[in-house]
Amino acid sequence: MRKPLVFSLLIIVFLIFAVNNVLAQGLQFDGFLESYYSIKLKDDHDFIGERSRFRLNLRNSSDNMYMFASLNGVSNGIIEDDELEVEIHEAYLEYTQPLWDVKIGRQIYSWGKADGVRITDVLSPCDYSEFITRDFDEIRIPVDSVKYRYLFPMADLELVWIPTFTEPVYPGDEDNPWYVEKGIKVNSAEEVENELGNSELAARLSFYLNGIDFSFSTAYLWDDEATYHKTGATFTPEYHRLRFYGLDLSKPVNDFVIRFESAYYQGKYFSADNNCGLLERDYVHSLAGLDWYPGNNWTVTTQLTNKYIFDYEDEIEEDESQTILTLNLSKKFYRETLELANMVYYETDERDGFNRISLDYAVNDNLHFLTGIDYFFGDEGEFANYDDNDSLWVKVKYNF
Amino acid sequence: MRNRILLVFLLLILVLGTVVQAAELTGRDIMVKVDNRDDGDTRKAKMVMTLINNVGDKRIREVVSYQKDYGKDTKAIMIFESPGDVKGTGYLSWEYDDEDKEDNRWLYMPALRKIRRISGSSNDDYFMGTDFTYDDMGDRNVDEDEHTLLREEELNGYQCWVIQSIPKEIDEGDYTKKISWIRQDIAMAIKTDYYNEYGLLKTYQAKDIVEIDGIWTPKQRLMVNKQDEHQTIIDMTELKFNVAMDDNLFRTSMLKRGNIRY
């Protein structure tokens, strides 16, 4: 997708600033190199994950300016035939004053209090080309945007302008083991044009107070999930506008932290079994969570999420109410050099789910060795689609 | 003759007064003196934490730390500069002297781009794999322990009070007793032995104690765990006291800023 002029100019300014500072003060850099391999536990034990990633972070500051850029080099043997893709992952300039700051460029947003579930976290789209088995840092797609923050005495106000729409990424075709056959003929998705009227706008007011944090958020944005418009026997994915109102809070109580998050989405198009293949409805997506820190490096996190569609009709393909439970247990051993974790997603209606058991061993300060098992279970539902993709995986990550 | 009697009488009053004063100084009084020792209203430092295991392998963590006192309460922000896997991690705390008031703590994880509220009650957990607990790093309230003056003795050439401190409430995993050597001239603990149910757990030592801007401070802190033969050395560099720090520095919004400039 062609990026508009303002961001091309920004990249030039960014480079000038960076080069100027390299000469003046020197650039700081760090990053990592990692390799990941995943092999199926069923059938012929094919590889379903085979990728290497190189990340170079560059940063520099001068007076009230700060610049950050990260470059990604990715080689994926399963879904990209080992072609090396190099791209600018994030690149932004930040100007700070004691009571406000502004950040311009490609950046990642992470709103809300939920873990591994998106409720009010609506600004950065996701790369689901390997479903949810990648790290957050790989799944989240940065967006070209401007973020302004004002620090009130008791609260932070965040205003975001996203001038161009960034599409999420889904498993492309049947060569990808994470591709799910829809059983319908689908055209390519209609693009959202780069024009001012197609911008996304968002605001968030966050309070971090003694004993409680809470935020209110709102946005006028594009629904990252395209809906399928029916024309005869074929379907064309289209993106639609959504209005969004969110609330999140977290409150510590002794060894626990209680979390709550809820978002009301207005004007969502749902796939339906009717003439045009669509029905417009509002829905609410909520989460209640409890974190327990019992000591001795144990962490227990549990979350209950529910998505509820208002004015439901039977033609809508999704269920009126969907509930997902998550449970994450983790324990660090040997001075935090070894971490054992188990993360479970369980869909209560379909009784399907996903369980990841993982072990992360820090060989030294720079080198981590990780391994684990991903296990999908159930007969119906989103997780059950990947029942054949149970896998054993290993990852080596070197930080520099 | 009358003058000599008067002189002896005055000397007697002086000696008795000193004895009475020393006798009246309780363990709690001494620990209050330690607690009230001038350590500046604000503190900025770079901490290099060296973690050494039982076979001598080292891991190093570099942290930039800012602290500001609000009466007896303290706000602190720490940003990790190394190693690479934790670089950019930020930790913000608002610690309260009132033992009934829970501390506020937030953690910023750069990989997740997320500020997370964490529980403020687990003060006996170890900080980032070091041998220091959150309590050891922070400011434990004097009245959480029962303090007894055991004796006075010399340590490393300094006259010290030796104080035994026993927690009033002991949970599983807590230390059961502390013995501290308090340097009398500057009211600072230069050595502390920590005990748990298995005996001596770890020993703390304050080293390279210097006066900076009129404030006595150790440039090196050493904690040796006797039970698993692990130790942590914290070297403090770029120490500054009583420098101006805006209250806004101790807000979660700062954890997300690319760098903190004060």
What does the model show?
- Chain A is mainly β and 400 residues long.
- The model of chain A has no long low-confidence stretch (mean pLDDT 91).
- Chain B is an alpha+beta fold.
- Chain B has one domain: Lipoprotein localisation LolA/LolB/LppX (outer membrane lipoprotein receptor (LolB), chain A, Clam).
- In chain B, a hairpin with a 2-residue loop joins strand 7 and strand 8.
- The longest helix of chain B has 23 residues.
- The termini of chain B are far apart.
- About 2% of the residues of chain B have low confidence.
- The interface between A and B is large, with 54 and 45 residues.
- Chain A: InterPro entries: DUF1302.
- Chain A: It holds the Pfam family DUF1302.
Provide the succession of SSEs of chain A: HEEEEEHEEEEEEEEEEEEEEEE
Number of strands of chain A: 21
> How many DSSP H or I helices of chain B?
4
Give the biggest beta sheet of chain A: 18 strands, antiparallel, barrel
Instruction: List unreliable stretches of 5+ residues of chain A.
Output: none
Secondary-structure-based class of chain A equals: mainly beta
Shape of chain B: globular
Beta strands of chain B, count: 13
Mean pLDDT across all amino acids of chain A: 91
CATH topology name of chain A, in short, is Porin
Report Rg of chain A. 22 Å
The CATH class of chain B: Mainly Beta
Helix content of chain A: under 10%
Number of separate structural domains of chain B:
1
| Average of the residue pLDDT scores of chain B | 88
